[in-house]
UniProtKB/TrEMBL annotation:
Name this polypeptide is given: Dihydropyrimidine dehydrogenase subunit A
Annotated ranges, domain Dihydroprymidine dehydrogenase: 26-136
Region described as Disordered: 1-26
Sequence ranges assigned to domain FAD/NAD(P)-binding in this UniProt record: 151-478
Species name: Paracoccus acridae
Compositionally biased intervals (Basic and acidic residues): 15-26
Keywords annotated in UniProt: 4Fe-4S, Iron, Iron-sulfur, Metal-binding, Oxidoreductase
Keyword Metal-binding: yes
Transmembrane feature ranges: none
InterPro entries (UniProt xref): DPD_II (IPR028261), FAD/NAD-bd_sf (IPR036188), FAD/NAD-binding_dom (IPR023753), GltD-like (IPR006006), Helical_ferredxn (IPR009051)
Taxon lineage: Bacteria, Pseudomonadati, Pseudomonadota, Alphaproteobacteria, Rhodobacterales
Gene name in the database record: gltD
Length: 498
């Protein structure tokens, strides 16, 4: 009987949830896809071929049991589908919204390879869990037995929160420390509302708190509390800080006014979305309204920036990327959405210099350096753009961009946003920690199976170990580390420091 409800990919075409028109969605920060209706979700789930070797599952970092919950959805057994989905994923409704499915599960769907169009896995995953919330099926952790051992988690992003959930389920006492005033990390302040509405993240934060996770917010480790104090207070510590240091450009006028970091720009926009007061937004520094905006970079952060600038009412938005469309790291789906909303992509281009001018009163644009001399503060006026071509492949196999001599030109700009990726902060120095080993890239050294660092009882997960990566990988790391921490604390699997 079950198979009769499946294998419909031959007769049923692929359909995504309806996308709001670009003219409408570019005016607000609400999510751009409408919800699947129950019948439509079941219809699209029934397209799954239930193949013997599910590549969608093997290419998901969490190895979600995708074929099973698609079958259950097609059969109308949504609560069971939710149970299967959440058994491997702490935040399925978030992954359904922000995972680059075109590069992971959907990109490896067997029926996609055969030309029938992939199953819309992400949209169905989102639908299942949104329905579960509406129906009251999502319950906070209720451990069978409380344990005395406590775990301190530094960082309330997806890795830290996934670990917190798994540890609470086993009865451990969990405290999460975070520098921001709301938990969620980049899910809260880095990803715009049009991809992930903030009440979705806040709902999960409250769910964790209801399950007994303690949050200590507005807490800068190394300033408000020392790392040693956290180690002294807890039986194990998990470092899940993410990476927030922006890669920079070594070009003329790199610190000109109007040249800003993507993380600052996106955080300001999200805080405004929450209704917070943001002086740097109100005075125009981190606000694109009425400005000619240039975003530098080709990853998902750059896509978030260009689409945010459109919604803030920018005069024009251009995205510079030094390779072509086929070689950009960001989601192709996001590029298409951005183009529909009015973003212009300038491929095979890189900034060569920032050209500034002294705006307004000359005296008002003077500021003293630390050593005393006065320097002129320049305001961005244009970007000197260098045209590139793709040459020989680099060590990763991608073709390296090469400069085309004599093809430079200047592009006027009032706001330049650097979305060049993130690097780890120097945590041992920042926190005054001896013995915490890092790699040559500055990421924390941790065993790739146990997530144990060089310090006994200290574990690390997510971007601070991997470098800038995806939310879904951080969730996987957090869940794995929780298992290792539980073994370490109970003596079931004492882990020797590597």
């Amino acid at each position: 009987m079950a198979t009769q409800k499946m294998l419909k990919f031959v007769s049923t075409p692929r359909e995504m949830p309806e996308k709001r028109p670009a003219t409408e969605r570019s005016e607000d920060f609400h999510e751009i896809y409408r919800e699947f209706a129950d019948a439509k979700a079941a219809e699209q789930a029934s397209r799954c071929s239930q193949c013997g070797v599910p590549y969608c599952q093997s290419h998901c970092p969490l190895h979600n049991n995708i074929p099973d919950w698609l079958r259950l959805t097609a059969e109308g057994r949504l609560e069971e589908a939710y149970r299967v989905s959440q058994s491997t994923n702490t935040f399925p409704e978030i992954c359904g919204r922000i995972c680059p499915q075109d590069r992971l599960c959907e990109g490896n769907c067997v029926i996609e390879q055969s030309g029938h169009g992939t199953v819309t896995i992400g949209s169905i995953e989102k639908y299942i869990t949104d329905t579960a919330w509406e129906m009251g099926w999502v319950k906070p952790a209720a451990p069978v037995m409380e344990r005395a051992e406590s775990v301190g988690i530094i960082g309330a992003g997806p890795g830290g929160l996934a670990a917190a959930d798994m540890l609470r389920r086993q009865g451990f006492q969990v405290t999460v420390y975070d520098r921001y005033d709301r938990a969620g990390g980049l899910m809260t302040y880095g990803i715009p509302g049009f991809k992930l509405e903030k009440d979705v993240v806040m709902r999960r934060n409250q769910w964790l708190a209801d399950g007994g996770v303690e949050f200590v917010l507005n807490c800068n480790v190394g300033e408000d509390i020392s790392f040693d104090a956290i180690r002294g207070k807890h039986d194990a510590v998990l470092i899940a800080t993410g990476v927030y240091k922006t890669r920079d450009l070594d070009i003329d006028n790199a610190d000109a006014g109007g040249v800003v970091r993507a993380i600052d720009y996106l955080t300001a926009s999200n805080k405004v979305d929450f209704g917070d007061e943001v002086p740097d937004y109100d005075d125009g520094e981190l606000n694109a309204r009425g400005k000619r905006v240039i975003v530098i970079g080709g990853g998902d952060t750059a896509m978030d920036c260009v689409r945010t600038a459109i919604r803030q009412g920018a005069l024009s938005v251009k995205c510079l990327y030094r390779r072509d469309r086929a070689n950009m790291p960001g989601s192709q789906r996001e590029v298409q959405n951005a183009e529909e909303e009015g973003v212009e992509f300038v491929w095979m281009s890189a900034p060569g210099k920032f050209i500034g001018h002294v705006a307004g009163d000359f005296a008002a644009n003077q500021e003293a350096d630390v050593d005393g001399p006065v320097r002129t503060v320049m305001q961005i006026a244009s970007v000197g753009i260098q045209k590139m071509r793709l040459g020989a492949p680099d060590v990763s196999g991608r073709q390296s961009p090469e400069l085309i001599e004599g093809a430079d030109y200047d592009e006027p700009a009032d706001l330049v946003i650097k979305a060049l990726g993130f690097e780890p902060e120097d945590l041992p120095k920042l926190w005054g920690v001896d013995g915490l080993e890092v790699t040559r890239w500055g990421t924390i050294k941790a065993n790739f199976q146990t997530h144990q660092t060089s310090l006994p009882g200290v574990f690390a997960v997510g971007d601070i170990v991997r470098g800038a990566s995806l939310v879904v990988w951080a969730i996987r790391d957090g869940r794995e580390a929780a298992e290792s921490i539980a073994g370490y604390l109970t003596g079931a699997a004492r882990i020797a420091a590597e």
